[in-house]
Design goal:
Helix content is 40%, strand content 13%. It contains 15 helices and 13 strands. The chain has a seven-stranded mixed sheet, with helices on both faces.
């Protein structure tokens, strides 16, 4: 495989030329990535030349509507789904909340069950657990308290009686970071007659998903963590989306991407999301990756992952070799996202402050992952230190981080 051209990659992100941002090695990507130049330019153009009600019969409105349509069409093509299966919303938390209201009505009074995990960010946990208020049985797929892993054998036991209608789980956790086998989990759920909702927020920054290969019914992620604007993106397969009760205006229910959008869409940010597709195509062209949009996306996904695995491995080795902290999640970089959380056994926030003084941008806390951290015995008052990379992170950034950690730990 061709190696990722890191100089080209960084040239696509204005942040690396910013006098404010470029002074620090950036390891807060799991909280939000830098936007690529294509997104910045599209957002600026929309606010400059298109900031009118879209689709109306005059030039600016027509251009704005066309760019919104382009974003949905191109992202759908990248992920190998129908354009109608891509919905936008203000955030993944909001999208999941709306989806849960549809499921609430779908399952209320049926005596059936759902499965949730204690590995998730709260956005893909709390809203589902509240369905118990409607008499829906909520079954918890528990992580191993030592490793943070989800065992598929435990899921098989949970769905064995055929009462489970929905399984909600993360592609990977934002603190454990282990890559869950989404295709295998979805196969188990499907065989038991259950639908699947996958929180992909912590995975999608490391390569946009190939939805048919995963086999899930819903996949959610955040554009602001995938080099784009502050939008939540939800892929909901047509067969499931049209079965669920609509949550938008009744007269929009015939349109799948409007069924779960109760509020008006953010026109400019939706249009700017096409810049993410521009960026993937730019990477594909630079590295000689051809084919249709889905093939280009798969090739870029593999480039991103290879870069990340190579770059983050020295940090994992360094942390695993220390006996004064606990590395959360797998040591093997190939088995995880490059989001690295450590339990220091003491308050983590002051350490992140000291790292900031040494040119490292990262943070500490619970990151809304209260359930997995609690299950693993982490003191929430102390929290974890989290350092997160993506494909634009270089080996020199990691070396700089390790040197700073040596000074503050």
């Amino acid at each position: 495989m061709t190696a990722l051209d890191l100089d080209f990659v960084r040239s696509q992100f204005p942040a690396f030329a910013s006098p404010v941002l470029s002074s620090h090695a950036f390891f807060e990507n799991a909280g939000g990535s830098y936007p690529c130049v294509q997104v910045v330019e599209r957002l600026h153009r929309f606010y400059t030349d298109r900031k009118v009600q879209p689709y109306a019969p005059y030039p600016g409105a027509q251009a704005g509507g066309a760019e919104m349509d382009e974003a949905r069409t191109r992202l759908a093509a990248m992920m190998a789904v129908k354009r109608e299966e891509v919905s936008f919303g203000p955030s993944t938390s909001a999208n999941t909340y709306v989806l849960a209201q549809a499921v609430r009505k779908w399952l209320a009074g049926t005596g059936q069950a759902i499965v949730v995990t204690d590995q998730d960010h709260e956005a893909n946990s709390g809203v589902w657990r509240r369905l118990a208020d409607e008499g829906v049985e909520v079954r918890e797929w528990k992580i191993d308290p030592q490793t943070g892993s989800l065992r598929i054998e435990a899921l098989e036991a949970l769905v064995a009686d055929g009462k489970v209608r929905l399984v909600c789980f993360p592609h990977c956790s934002n603190v454990v970071a282990e890559l869950n086998d989404v295709a295998a989990i979805c196969a188990v759920a499907r065989a038991a007659g259950a639908r699947t909702v996958v929180d992909g927020v912590s995975y999608a920054p490391h390569g946009f998903p190939d939805i048919p290969a995963l086999g899930c019914d819903v996949y959610l992620f955040s554009a602001y963590k995938t080099y784009g604007p502050h939008q939540g993106i939800m892929v909901i397969r047509e067969s499931f989306g049209m079965e669920l009760p609509g949550q938008g205006h009744y007269f929009n229910n015939a349109t799948l991407y409007k069924r779960f959008t109760p509020a008006g869409p953010d026109h400019a940010q939706i249009a700017a999301c096409a810049g993410m597709a521009d960026y993937v195509d730019a990477l594909a062209a630079r590295h000689g990756i051809g084919g249709d949009a889905a093939a280009r996306n798969r090739g870029v996904h593999d480039l991103m992952r290879a870069q990340e695995v190579a770059v983050i491995a020295p940090l994992l080795d360094y942390l695993a070799a220390r006996n004064d902290l606990r590395l959360i999640g797998p040591r093997d970089a190939a088995q995880r996202a490059p989001t690295v959380a450590v339990d220091l056994g003491r308050a983590a926030e002051p350490v992140s402050v000291e790292l900031g003084r040494r040119g490292i941008a990262c943070w500490a806390g619970d990151f809304y992952a209260v359930r997995p951290l609690t299950a693993m015995g982490v003191d929430l008052e102390k929290g974890v230190l989290r350092m997160s990379a993506v494909h634009y992170t270089g080996a020199d950034d990691v070396a700089r981080l390790i040197a700073a950690l040596d000074e503050v730990l």
